[in-house]
Amino acid sequence: MLTAIGLMSGTSLDGVDVALIETDGERIGRFGPTAYRAYTGAERDLLRRALADAAPMTDRDARPGASADAEKLVTRAHAEAIEDFLQANGLSRSHIDVVGFHGQTVLHRPERKLTVQIGDGRALARTLGIPVVFDLRAADVAAGGQGAPLVPVYHRALVNMQNSDGPTVVVNIGGVANITYIDGDTLIACDTGPGNALLDDFMLRRTGEAVDRDGRAAASGRIDEEWISRALSRPFFALPPPKSLDRNDFAALTIEGMSVQDGAATLTALTAVSIAAIAQMLPKLPARWIVVGGGASNPTLMTMLGKRLAPATVVRGADLGWSGDAVEAQAFAYMAVRSLKSLPLTFPGTTGVPAALTGGVLAKP
């Protein structure tokens, strides 16, 4: 078993998740501690500018506009997150075999064989004095895959630790929502549509708050079903898995004419409806849905999912002893070890890549 730390800064732009696991790249030997390093308001503003400046990119190595400064921020924030994590948990660098570093996605256009995650993996390895595996999506996209979702292989390892009866779906709700369908050897995955991104951006514009805390605004609003029907007419929703999204693919969906409460309720419902709609595209109707990511902490969204997915069981990963918000960080620790061992990270059923494929770049201190 190797000791690995995983890092994740997702499309919600909230901060850096840190998690330690022990794994051989197949089995999970032990879950270790987790931590979180929040981005400041100024840091989030810089990342939002980098997202806007990255939109016209055609060269994945270019760093136009704010993206150069944002890359330095991402690298520094991740180094700080690990250094604080090691100190808080009494760990030395020598205890850590590898770090899995996802970076910050600023552009995802697999149809153009282009995916860009900013963050300097080599500089991070030098700063930490620990080997770092980074750039984990690029090989898949270069081979014709979607490059996302990237963590289904870890979801499978988690589900295999449970006593599952019938097909299970793991739902990860970050800025974008995605699912992993697991039924024996069958592994299928895709993005389903907006997760928290549209809602978070709406709340920030209208209230100055970056999230709908505990789903309170949505809980008191009215869902505009006609608006949802128009949104679901977009071609993406009719595509079968595998498929993936850029965080801003649905940014043009405007909802500004609604009150804060009605807008929050409608955007939350869009996330729930688009997740539930994927059930009809799977080989069998899942018996259980396990929700992880930031969306699992939104009780209004969880209630909507429960109603849309009934009679299937809907539970939070945290209720099963999983690490809730840290699942993706754990996944990148797991995949870093798989990368070291040249084990597959992506599969035809998860990203559409022609054959199971490993990935990642190893940076040594």
UniProtKB/TrEMBL annotation:
Listed SUPFAM superfamilies: Actin-like ATPase domain
Family matches, as Pfam families: AnmK (PF03702)
Example of a GO biological process term: peptidoglycan turnover
InterPro entries linked: Anhydro_N_Ac-Mur_kinase, ATPase_NBD
Catalysed transformations (reactions): 1,6-anhydro-N-acetyl-beta-muramate + ATP + H2O = N-acetyl-D-muramate 6-phosphate + ADP + H(+)
Name of protein: Anhydro-N-acetylmuramic acid kinase
Family assignment from sequence similarity: Belongs to the anhydro-N-acetylmuramic acid kinase family.
Cross-referenced PANTHER family: ANHYDRO-N-ACETYLMURAMIC ACID KINASE
Gene Ontology molecular function: any one: phosphotransferase activity, alcohol group as acceptor
Organism, as annotated: Afipia clevelandensis ATCC 49720
